[in-house]
Amino acid sequence: QLLAETLAPVCYRWRMLSIGGLVPGTLQLFLDELALGAPNLELLVLKTGCSASETDIDPALELNLTRCPRLHTLALLSSGIAFPTAQPNPNLEANDGIDPGIPRSYEALTALTLGRETSQPDALGWLQACPNLVSASIAFDGAPPIMLPFTRPLRMDRLTHFALGAYPGLSGDSDARPNVGAFLSLLRLPALESLTLAVYDFSNLNADDIGNEREREQEEWGCLEDLLRLSELPPLSSLSLLGTPVTPTELVRTLALIPSLK
Question: pTM for this one?
Answer without folding.
Answer: 0.82
